[in-house]
Structure formats: C-alpha cells, structure tokens
Write a structure and sequence with these properties.
The protein is of the alpha+beta class. The protein is built from six helices and 25 strands. The protein has three domains: 113 residues, no CATH class; 90 residues, Gamma-B Crystallin, domain 1, CATH 2.60.20; 124 residues, Sandwich (Gamma-B Crystallin, domain 1), CATH 2.60.20.10. A five-stranded antiparallel sheet has the order 3-8-5-6-10, with no helix packed on it. Strands 2-1-4-7 form a four-stranded antiparallel sheet, with no helix packed on it. A four-stranded antiparallel sheet has the order 11-16-13-14, with no helix packed on it. Strand 1 and strand 2 form a beta hairpin.
Length: 441
C-alpha cells in the first residue's frame, strides 16, 4: 500500500514540476529554456527576466513543499496527526501553485501588457543627454574617454524649454587633452536649448552652463557657435593672476554680460602679476553697447594679470537731485604727496562723477591744477601747471580702476596713490602720457 502511495506522490510531484516550470512559465514568457535565460539587454527585459525567475522559483518551492508533505503522508500511518498535517500541507502547496497560475491567466486575459513589462520612453524633460536619435540616456558633466559612451549614443543633446545655453568643450584626445601643450584641436561650442552636437570617438568632453563673466581663449573667439577655436577657461568674474595653461597664451577673450540684471564686465590685461607694478597692458575691454550680451576681443597681449570687474556705467541722482555714482565721489589729482591732507598746499584737479561718467580717458597734461586758496609762490604755480609736470598723489574716492600709461609702459591701480614718486612709473619712466579711469561696482 505504501509503495502505491509513494508512486502516486512521485507522479504528482513530476506533474507539478512540469506545470510550474513550463506551463506557468510558458504563459508568462517566451523563453524555451527556463534554466538558461538569455541575459537581459534592456530595463524591460531585465524586469521580465526577474519576474520569470520568481515564477519558476515559486513553482519549484511548491513542488518541494508537496514532495515533503507526500513523504510525511506516506509514512504517517502510525501517526494520524502527522498524516493530517501532511495532507493539509499538500493541499496548501497545490492551492498556492494554482493561485499563481490563475493570477497569470487572469491578468493575461484582461490585458497581456499587465504581465509583459514594456518601458515606454517618455523622452527627457530637461538636461544633457546622450542620444542615438530616438532614445536618450543621461550624460555626465564630463567624460574623460568617449569610448566609454554606449555604442550608437554618440550625440550630446541639450534638452530644455528655456534656460541658459551650455558651453561644450570638445577635446580630440582622452583625459581632456589637446594635440599638444597648446591644446591644439580643442574647440568650445555654445549650444542653445534643444540642440545637439556629435562627439568624436576616442576624445573627451565636458560642459558647463554659460554664466556672465570673462572667458579666456587660447585661440580665436566668436560670440556664438564655436565660441573658441582652442581651449577656453571657465568664467572669470574678479581680478585674477593668469595661470597655466593660459599664462602667456590668451589670444582672445569672450565677455558675457547679463543685460537683464545690468551686469556688464570690463577687463584690462597686464604683463605684471600684480596691481601697482610696472609693465605693459591692454586697453580697457568692454562692450560699449549696453544691449549686447556677448562680445569678443582678439589680439590680447601676453599677460600675467587680468583685472576684471563689474563696470558701473550709470549715474543716478540723490534725494537732493544731485548727480551721483554708486562707485563713489570720483578721483582727485594733486601736485604734492598726500595732497588732500591739511597743510599740503597742493594744487588740485577734481574729476567728479559727472566728469568720469562711464569712462574717462585723457592726458596727464589735461589735468590742470587749481591753486585757488593755495599759498604757493607764483613760480611754483607757473612751472607745475598740471599733473604731467608735478604728479604728487591721487585720491581715489570710491571704486575705480586707473591705468597710467607712458609709451609702452603701464601701471594699474585700484586705490589711492599717496606719493606718486614711489611708484615704478615715476622711478623708471619718469613721465606720464595718458590716464584711463573706469568706475566699478
């Protein structure tokens, strides 16, 4: 009798294994070999893969549970309680398996898609993505080796409805390198919303949002499109020593203004590493058109220092209707050191805010001293008529940048000069040609 029961139970176990591992699985997936499933190649196949594995394991566990209960039932003749428990366990195993199969059958009958996971590509909303033309994958802010990019996704797409442009650095070699130490072959692209750019295989890239400031470029500059045909710095918003790889290699700059928020950058480049040192310098570089967001300046001289500031181009009025500047009260020139001090008896030339306005440029000869109320011999007043003949001191009453030039020499200051005789301009050159002043915020 026991042998018959064991044979029946063994047959039932094989049957349950068959329907749990084949029938239920066959309803759920299109795999012919449930123990050798193909490797998932996409998110949806991965989900289906694990769903099928779970279904197979559930059937296998039900079969094992039924088999154990069957053995207990076959050898439980002498123990009615064990026999009863085994019978209930077999019933539970069969019911669990039937419920699993029924669930799959019912779901497939209602809607096959309920048991066939498909991830619909909704497309990116906002951001930077790799794309193959139809699908998108999030892209990092930099990639040291484009060979790491998923095959076929060799285009970088910037998706947005509105927002700032991005700047895209494209390097011909991995690890953000150019073809030589001068970064030959590097280019920087400006990309607006909903634009794409192909990425070279074997190179590298990085991107940043475009923000107001001054950008150093080691090649030619353009306002849009390829904004730099060479390596370009990030935005510079304050005065900075020029470091490698840009030291002595800045060929052009790109000035980006925030017209809406009235942020307009200006800069002047100097061959010396610090303010107050003698060297050669460029002119003040800035966009005179206040509605212009971008402007390029080429032929930048070799420099170690970039004096960068927010240009204060506006005059305003105070509560009394007086014209003022938020930069300060202007710049005064004196014939003696500490000329503004009591007892200095110095001639004075005042450049007030209205005189300086947006920008002032003139010769030292044009700064004619006023000796009204100053007790000095007439001979002194006749000889030292202007700042050119007697540069004594300069009182900078606010936030201004001053450039003193004489021939190829230049010296830049952003504060008062208490004794001009101590400057390198006076000691080395001995004369002043022109003076340029810009108000800063």
């Amino acid at each position: 009798m026991n042998k018959i029961r064991i044979g029946i139970i063994f047959f039932v176990c094989l049957f349950l294994l068959s329907i749990s591992g084949s029938f239920a699985f066959g309803l759920e997936a299109n795999y012919n070999n449930p123990l050798g499933f193909p490797e998932p190649t996409s998110p949806e196949t991965a989900i289906n893969f694990w769903f099928q594995i779970t279904a197979y394991i559930s059937g296998f566990v039900a079969m094992i549970s039924f088999a154990i209960a069957g053995i207990q039932f076959a050898w439980g003749e002498a123990n009615p309680s064990l026999k009863k428990d085994a019978k209930e366990r077999m019933i539970s195993a069969v019911m669990g398996l039937l419920l699993s199969v029924a669930a799959v059958v019912i779901l497939r009958s209602i809607n096959p898609s309920l048991v066939n996971v498909v991830i619909t590509d909704l497309g990116p909303q906002t951001g930077v993505f790799y794309t193959n033309g139809s699908t998108y994958a999030p892209a990092p802010q930099s990639e040291a080796n484009n060979s790491n990019i998923l095959s076929g996704y060799n285009n970088l797409a910037y998706r947005c409805t509105q927002g700032p442009a991005i700047l895209l650095w494209i390097f011909p070699k991995p690890n953000f390198l150019g073809n030589n130490d001068n970064y030959e072959g590097v280019k920087v692209m400006r990309k607006e919303c909903n634009s794409q750019e192909p990425l070279p295989s074997g190179g590298s890239f990085k991107w940043e949002f475009e923000t107001p400031g001054v950008y150093f470029c080691m090649g030619g500059c353009s306002e849009t499109g390829t904004v730099c045909s060479g390596y370009m710095s990030l935005d510079q918003t304050t005065s900075t020593r020029i470091l490698e790889p840009f030291l002595g290699r800045v060929r052009s700059i790109r000035v980006v203004n925030d017209v809406q928020n009235d942020i307009h950058f200006a800069t002047i480049f100097h061959s010396a590493p610090d303010l107050g040192q003698l060297g050669s310098c460029s002119d003040f570089l800035y966009s005179s058109d206040l509605n212009k967001k971008y402007e390029c300046f080429n032929n930048i001289p070799a420099a170690q220092l970039g004096v960068i500031f927010n240009w204060n181009h506006k005059l305003t009025t105070d509560s009394n209707g007086e014209i003022i500047s938020t930069s300060g009260q202007g710049v005064d020139f004196y014939s003696e050191p500490y000329g503004w001090a009591q007892g200095a008896r110095a001639g004075r030339k005042i450049l007030n805010t209205r005189a300086i306005d947006k920008y002032w440029s003139g010769s030292a000869e044009s700064l004619i001293y006023d000796y009204s109320g100053i007790i000095r011999p007439n001979r002194y007043k006749q000889i030292y008529t202007s700042f050119a003949q007697k540069p004594g001191s300069v009182n900078v009453k606010g936030s201004y940048v001053l450039a003193f030039k004489s021939g190829s020499y230049c010296q830049i200051f952003s504060g008062s000069i208490y004794n001009f005789k101590t400057t390198q301009m006076a000691a080395v050159v001995g004369s002043i040609g022109s003076i340029n002043i810009m108000p800063a915020k």
